[in-house]
Structure formats: structure tokens, C-alpha cells
Amino acid sequence: MAPIISIRNLTKTYANGFQALKGIDLDIDKGEILALLGPNGAGKTTMISIVCGIANPSGGTVTVGGHDVVKEFRATRTMIGLVPQELTTDQFETVWNTVSFSRGLHGKKPDPAHIERVLRDLSLWDKKDNMLRQLSGGMKRRVLIAKALSHEPQILFLDEPTAGVDVTLRKDMWHVVERLRASGVTIILTTHYIEEAEEIADRVGVINGGKLLLVEEKNTLMAKLGRKQLILDLAEPLDAVPRSLDGNGLSLGPNGMTLIYDFDAEHEQSSIAVLLSRLATEGIHFKDLSTRQSSLEDIFVSLVGEGQ
């Protein structure tokens, strides 16, 4: 099956010479959730803006559903819903009218039942007659999401959708995302909350300095780049790791009371057994042990550091 979004050698250079995107290649499959991670200024929003037809590329091509985003703008834009970072709304319009108007802008016939369903999903139904200026920042963010869903898009871009909002909205948001995915909607998410990507994404892309460093299945990425640590609480403090154990991935924790062993999870049992045997030979005893798995955040920080 052809990807629903195909990006080839995408570049973007601004008038001042700043190169925001440097040859991005990316395919996104129908119905998947892709999380794009990267620091501020990495190029995430620029890439989304080009796919959505808000900005023009300097080079390369982007197709959505087989349509070129520049040459066939209307066809591609109708397929896409976008939740931007900025709270851009008409402060003196009601929630109902704002969301309904957004549906009409995309050439869709009125469908009050659909608008009601979207507002209820986002806990906005009791605010439908309120003007936007009467809403809190979190509620305005919900309205942006409702506007993006008003025309029943096949693709939904969420650009930092839960930045600075309450936990309740985040939960509502992810419930909606799960339902949309179940109906076949493709979702591309950028977020600073890496735990969200770790929980909800099928694939993870890391972008930094305008370059796409990698795109991997989340579980594959965790297995490939994730590390484990064995933490040993020592019975007595050590001044240093014994020379005989140097080069074995061992480091000493604070106050010399913990010994930390970085190891490959695939060879976990044999490597730990060897280590414990060697510690016993050295007369090093421990009171307790625990393990820690690298998180997606650890992997992200490592990759971004390498990409600089």
C-alpha cells in the first residue's frame, strides 16, 4: 500500500539564509501514529507547515494521498486537519459557530450531528454557546482541536497540542486520538512530553537541526538503542571501581555506596551472572539490587546530542 504522506528531499531555506530543513525523506502510512521529537527550532513545525500547504518548500516534493501539496493544494488540504501551537481564534464568536464555520471552509456540507459529537468528545458541549473570549486557555486549545476535526480529515497534525494545558485535556485528547486511529485516521504528533510519545506512538522520528536523524518503530528503537542498568546497593562504600573490573561498564555512584552496571539487555542473564561472580571474588558485597531500562527520553537526548 502506498504511503498516505510521502516526503522526498524536502528543503526549506528562508530569505535570511537560514536552512530550516535539510533534505528530509519520510513516508507515513495510513492509520499510523507518528511522533516527531526534537528541540525548539529543530524543523518540526516548518515541515508540518509545508505538508499542510501553509509554507512553500525550497526544494523536494511532498505528496498527500498521491496529490502534490503545491500543485494540488485544495485536494491535499481537505484531507488534513491541523492543530497549531498558537491559539488563533475569533474571540467574539461562539464555540459552535467557530467549529461549524471551519467545516464549511473545507467545502463540507453542514453536519450538526458530527459537530455535536466532536464537541462532546472534547468536553466542550456545555460551552457551545460561549464566546471564545470567555474560555480558559485550555478550553481554547480544545476548540482548536475541534476545528481540526470538524471536516472529518484523513490526516491529523497535532503540533504540541497539550503544551501548557491541564491533565484532563491531555486525557480527553488521547482518548480522541485512539478513537480516530481506530477509524483509520493518520496522526502525526509533535510533543515535548516524551512520555506521551512513548505511550501512544507506533513510530518515533527524531529531528534536529533540520535533519531527520531516524524514524523507527517505537519498540524497535527501544530495543536497539535502549540500555539497561543494574544498580547494586553496596554493604560497604568503595573509594573506586577495582582495577580488575575496569572496562566492564561499571561506575561508582554517589558516596561510593552504589555500583552501576550498564549492560546489553539481549545478553542480560549471562553478563549479570559473570559480574556477580567477579564481585564475589573481589570481596564486594551488596545489600540490594535493582534494574533500570532506558526511556525514550534517554534515547532522544542521546540522539540529539550526537546530531549536533
Going across the major beta sheet, what is the strand order?
Answer: 6-7-8-3-9-10
Helix-strand sequence: EEEHEEHEHHHEHEHEEHEEEHEH
CATH superfamily of the largest domain: P-loop containing nucleotide triphosphate hydrolases
Q: Over all CA atoms, what is the radius of gyration?
A: 24 Å
Q: List the uncertain runs.
A: none
Judged by helices, strands and strand pairing, the structural class is alpha/beta
Mean pLDDT over the full residue set: 84
Q: Helical proportion?
A: 25-40%
Quick one: CATH class of the largest domain?
Alpha Beta
Beta percentage is 25-35%
What is the CATH T-level topology of the largest domain? Rossmann fold
First-last Cα distance: 35 Å
Number of helices: 10
CATH architecture of the largest domain: 3-Layer(aba) Sandwich
Structure notes:
By secondary structure, this protein is an alpha/beta fold. The protein has 2 domains: 5-223, P-loop containing nucleotide triphosphate hydrolases (Rossmann fold), CATH 3.40.50; 226-294, Alpha-Beta Plaits (2-Layer Sandwich), CATH 3.30.70. It has 10 helices and 14 strands. It has helices at residues 44-51, 73-79, 95-105, 112-121, 137-149, 167-182, 194-200, 218-225, 268-281, 296-307, and strands at residues 5-13, 19-28, 33-37, 59-64, 67-68, 80-83, 155-159, 186-190, 203-208, 211-217, 228-234, 250-252, 258-263, 286-293. Strands 6-7-8-3-9-10 form a 6-stranded mixed β-sheet, sandwiched between helices. Strands 2-1-4-5 form a 4-stranded antiparallel β-sheet. Strand 1 (5-13) and strand 2 form a beta hairpin.
